[in-house]
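Q: My labmate handed me this sequence with no annotations at all. I'd like to see what the chain might look like in three dimensions before we decide whether it's worth expressing. Could you predict it?
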Amino acid sequence: MSLGEKDKETARKKGFFAAAASGGAAALILTGAAPILGVIALVPAGYLVKDWFMYRAKRGMRF
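A: Here is what I predict for the chain of 63 residues:
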């Protein structure tokens, strides 16, 4: 596996986890099941999104 392919695969995994965490937090907020937990869950989700974004930006990947 080349370095470029490895970077793309890592970015894909980071993006998947960021999307899953954001979606889970949004689901908690929108369903009304646990809106306070949903707001608290936005903090780690935001960190994962920032981590994914910075990973792609540092490697010059397009969005």
